[in-house]
Amino acid sequence: MRPVETISWDEADQVVQLIDQTRLPGAYRNVRCASVDRLVRAIQRLEVRGAPALGVAGALGVALAARKIRDKDFHKFSEKLAIEAERLRSARPTAVNLSWGVDRVMARAAKGLSVKEVRELTLSEALSVAEEDARTCHALGAVGAAILPGKCTILTHCNAGALACKEWGTALGVVRSAVESGKEVRVIACETRPLLQGARLTAWELQRDGIDVTVIPDSSAAYLMRQGMVDLVLVGADRVTTDVVFNKIGTYMHAICARHHKVPFYVAAPLSTFDPVRTEDDVEVEQRGREEVAFCGGAETIPTGVPVINYGFDATPLSMIEGIITEKGVLKAPLDWDFISREQNKYSP
Ligand code: MRU
After folding, report:
1. Where residue 14 falls among pLDDT bands split at 50, 70, 90?
2. 175-196 burial string, b = 16+ CB within 10 Å, else e?
């Protein structure tokens, strides 16, 4: 496997560096964010995206803010840091990891008694968030690989891979771990309209690692299942609430098709994606711009003036999910929220 550095901290230049995912697969370019403004823009433009990678972006964003705020007065510095943290937290609303990453580093910052100390604490906590994400993905991958048959075809949606995390991936981490352990895994990547994270990103990173991948239009998933061409559906998650899993728009449609065709439907997500205090109704589902749907290759595909509805995510009831593959095992509904909260608290600074 050839690791990618989706997001990292450059200590020499004091910048957050990330792969510009809007340009893949055509060009592999890094973006270097020297300000919170630039990082917020990168998050909103989906230069960096995917729930765990957003957690790392939020965490590193707080460390970056602490470096860039010039006030020497501790009170003023702390006030400004809180404002920057809020800007990062609200850059995208649906994936819980973004606010989780910001809050975790802010909790650590609260222990600092000087500007210098807060700068050190925020960076060390943000780097721990990044390292833990990599470790978690490998652990989750091993858990998932163990339950896959020796030979199978997996349908996935969007990109829950190395590009959505620090490295390795969640759903694609399971695929990588299975391939590494000698299993014969073939991936069907749904292209994932409108921004094509499946076609552009999942296909790019799997091909790069020599893993068998084929892209299909989203609308053909049901027919492939009807033809018996899919053994398992495996997707990532942006937030697991007490009743549903939020993931990229289109996921719910695959869950319905999978249920109809008796294809097992699995989710892969680290415990940092679980939200024990919210239900579906409490979560804001991001609505994105008309231009994402109305243009294709620069050409307008919808008559000017016709509106679009462009939800970024949908919700799949937990009852439709065979299991959620986590770093602590495969969890099944009804979820044991006491266990989940206990495990989450082990990471609290
Ligand atoms: O809008 P995006 O590209 O950030 O959406 C990402 C997804 O929905 C992924 O499936 C999800 O974050 C999985 S996390 C590995």
Report:
1. very high
2. bbbbbeeebebbbbbbbbbbbb
173 lines ligand 1 (CB under 6 A): no
Task: Give, in order, the Cα–Cα distances in Å from 198 to each of 188, 192, 236, 240, 268.
Answer: 9, 5, 12, 21, 16
Please pick, among 231, 238, 275, 314, the residue that the annotation labels catalytic.
Answer: 238
Ligand 1 touching residue 136 (CB < 6 A)? no
pLDDT at 348: 64
Give pLDDT, residue 209.
98
Please say whether the beta carbons of 172 and 161 come within 8 A: yes
| Partner residues linked to 22 by β-bridges | none
Percent of the chain predicted with pLDDT > 70 = 99
What would the two tokens of residue 289 be?
Answer: 């711009």
Q: Given pLDDT bands bounded at 50, 70 and 90, which one contains residue 349? A: low
Confirm whether 37 is a catalytic residue: no
Q: Render 175-192 in DSSP notation, one character per residue.
A: HHHHHHTT-EEEEEEE--
